[in-house]
Specification:
Number of helices: 7
Oligomer: single chain
Strand content: 5-15%
CATH topology of one domain: Hypothetical Protein Ychn, Chain: A
Strand order of the largest sheet: 4-3-2-1-5
Order of helices and strands: HEHEHHHEHEHE
Shape: globular
Largest sheet: 5 strands, parallel
C-alpha cells in the first residue's frame, strides 16, 4: 500500500486550480503604495511636509504650484504654498479670475499656426491666447485655477502671501481670497526647513 502524504501543518490550505495564481488588481496596487508611503512617513517625519513657492502670476504658471500642492496634500503631506511677487495674482480676488498667458517670447506655447513675435505682440493677441488656453484646459477636463484653490483649502493646504510683496505692490490683506495667511520669508523658511520636498515655480 502506498504511503499517504499530507500537507504541511501551516494552517493554510494549499491553493489549487484558479486560486493558485490570483492577478494583482488595481486595489492591490493602491494598497501596497499606500502602505509604503505610510511606512516612509513613520520612518522619516520630514517626508510628510511639502513647501512650494509660487512666484509667477500668469495663467500657465499658476497651474504647476497648485497641482503639485493638491497632489501632495492628497498623498497625506502637510503642504504650504508661499505666494511672492507676481505669484500674488493667483490668490488676488480681482486679478486671480483674470489671469492671462502672454504668447510673446513664449515659443513653447502651442498655437494653431506658427506665429512670429511681431504677430503675437499685436493688440488682442493676449486675450486670444488666454482664451485659447482656457478652452484647451476645459476640453481636457482640467480644473480651473479657482477650483484648484478651493480644493487646496479643503485639504488644509496653507496659502501664505508674502507680506513684503504686499507692501511693495500696495496691496491690502483684504484684497485676497479667504483663507490666505500673511507672512514674510521667515514664515516660509519655518515650513521649508522641515520639508523634504521644496519646489520653486
Amino acid at each position: 500500500m502506498a504511503a499517504e502524504t499530507s500537507a504541511p501543518a501551516t494552517g493554510i490550505a494549499p491553493a489549487t486550480g484558479a486560486d493558485a495564481e490570483q492577478p494583482v488588481t488595481e486595489a492591490d496596487v493602491r494598497r501596497i503604495v499606500r502602505e509604503e508611503v505610510e511606512r516612509a512617513f513613520r520612518k522619516d517625519p520630514g517626508s510628510k511636509h511639502a513647501a512650494i513657492i509660487a512666484s509667477k502670476g500668469t495663467l500657465d504658471w499658476a497651474y504647476p504650484p497648485l497641482i503639485l500642492a493638491t497632489a501632495a496634500a492628497a498623498a497625506g503631506m502637510q503642504t504650504s504654498v508661499f505666494f511672492t511677487f507676481y505669484g500674488l495674482n493667483i490668490i488676488h480676488k480681482e486679478l486671480g479670475p483674470k489671469l492671462k498667458v502672454d504668447p510673446v517670447g513664449n515659443p513653447a506655447m502651442p498655437m494653431p499656426v506658427p506665429m512670429p513675435d511681431v504677430v503675437t505682440a499685436m493688440p488682442g493677441m493676449l486675450s486670444f491666447a488666454s482664451s485659447m488656453m482656457r478652452k484647451r484646459f476645459a476640453a481636457h477636463n482640467v480644473a480651473t485655477i479657482g477650483t484648484l484653490l478651493d480644493s487646496a483649502r479643503e485639504m488644509d493646504v496653507r496659502l501664505i502671501a508674502c507680506q513684503m510683496t504686499l507692501d511693495v505692490f500696495g496691496y491690502d490683506q483684504g484684497d485676497f481670497i479667504e483663507g490666505v495667511e500673511f507672512g514674510g520669508a521667515a514664515a516660509f523658511m519655518s515650513e521649508a526647513r522641515r520639508s523634504h520636498v521644496t519646489v520653486f515655480v
